[in-house]
Design goal:
mainly alpha; 12 helices; globular
Length: 405
């Protein structure tokens, strides 16, 4: 390790060995970046604070880095690194969001508040801190919000979220076991493997990888929906937010009729602004709208790579970069098609194109997850022996049948 790196660790007072979570460590390492994050959120909704934000941001970034380097929740168990991923991503978002707020020349403005509430700097700052999508804020006016189909009375809305979280947890667990059952020795191991089985004939190999990719995409959808539902419950019950502040996370992504439709409207938009700030906006200065598209996807690739490297330090980044670069090329190609022909990619042919292109790109992404050992962790369905066993036996029998060709 270089002298500079050693000096930085010394300045930040990072423990010589990573620590586990307890009250003293929480107060020493995790609370400071969280409080500084909330502090910058207060400043960015307040007039004439940019100079102060500029002065504070390096401290916020260093505190986030310090927290990232200080903790290890896995206690040496490779299969217990999930909380580490959550920590790293949280600190990454603290550093990047506060950087964007620091560079804002005007205060951010909120235009959707709970009914009968009065404007409050503190409440606006708290909403900004947890509102990654930006619903109700002036910095996300181009955000496309899905049409609401859930009951909007507070009690029924929370009840719906509880049922949705339970259902999607069940489905996610089943899909998790299904992927793992295609190859317990590799998919079920932290060492990982590949979804492209070279022992199979070409057509069967890609049929198998496409099935695994589809299951992986569905599992991601369910997992994100669970997290979103679990956030709704305390936000509406305890913080007394209006259900209208929590529009649906997804808008039927399987119905997308173009790559732009999928990523720009139907898939969850929680990190859209962050990716555009980090990659889209800088590249747009050099390459215009195409640069904004490609840059946003490359920033997303880096974000996903950070998660995978945290899970498995031996991970190679190229799968995520290739996958998201291909998605960006597909989205940019649709814009070029519109400019040349005056017609949008849409309708039945657009749906076929989108499914085909997204499956190709997602195959690289899911393969990256499998190589990292994402599916080695246990599933909640593992404890439900009859159901988990049925899924496992069914998938293993299907995979054995594929290997007969």
């Amino acid at each position: 390790m270089s002298f500079a790196a050693l000096s930085l660790r010394d300045v930040l007072r990072v423990p010589s060995t990573p620590v586990s979570m307890n009250l003293p460590n929480f107060l020493s390492y995790l609370l400071p970046p969280v409080l500084s994050y909330l502090g910058v959120a207060v400043l960015v909704v307040t007039q004439r604070t940019q100079l102060l934000r500029l002065a504070l941001w390096p401290l916020v970034a260093l505190l986030a880095l310090r927290a990232t380097l200080s903790f290890d929740f896995s206690l040496g168990n490779p299969e217990g690194v999930g909380p580490n991923v959550f920590l790293v991503i949280s600190m990454f978002l603290i550093a990047t969001r506060t950087l964007e707020w620091t560079l804002a020349t005007e205060p951010l403005q909120r235009y959707i508040r709970p009914i009968n509430s009065t404007p409050s700097v503190i409440m606006d700052a708290l909403d900004l801190a947890v509102n990654f999508r930006g619903h109700g804020w002036n910095w996300s006016k181009t955000l496309r919000v899905p049409r609401e189909t859930r009951p909007l009375t507070r009690t029924r809305f929370v009840g719906y979220a509880i049922l949705s979280a339970g259902l999607h947890t069940l489905i996610s667990g089943i899909l998790h076991i299904a992927i793992r059952s295609f190859s317990h020795k590799t998919f079920g191991s932290i060492r990982g493997g590949t979804i492209f089985d070279q022992t199979l004939p070409l057509l069967v190999r890609y049929l198998r990888s496409t099935i695994i990719t589809t299951i992986g995409a569905a599992a991601s959808y369910c997992s994100i929906q669970v997290v979103y539902d679990l956030c709704i419950i305390p936000a509406v019950l305890i913080l007394r937010q209006d259900p209208a502040q929590w529009p649906p996370a997804f808008d039927a992504p399987w119905r997308a009729t173009s790559v732009n439709d999928f990523w720009g409207r139907r898939w969850q938009q929680c990190f859209r602004r962050t990716f555009l700030f980090l990659g889209g906006d800088p590249l747009s200065l050099m390459f215009g709208s195409v640069g904004r598209i490609i840059g946003g996807f490359l920033a997303s690739a880096v974000f996903h790579d950070i998660m995978l490297v945290t899970l498995n330090g031996q991970t190679e980044p190229w799968n995520m970069i290739r996958a998201f670069a291909m998605m960006g090329i597909g989205a940019a190609g649709e814009r070029t098609f519109l400019q040349w022909t005056g017609r949008r990619v849409e309708g039945l042919m657009g749906w076929v194109w989108t499914i085909t292109w997204m499956t190709l790109c997602s195959g690289l992404m899911v393969d990256g997850w499998v190589r990292t050992g994402v599916y080695a962790s246990s599933s909640v369905i593992d404890e439900v022996k009859p159901l988990g066993g049925l899924v496992e036996r069914s998938v293993m029998a299907f995979d054995a049948w594929l290997h007969m060709f």
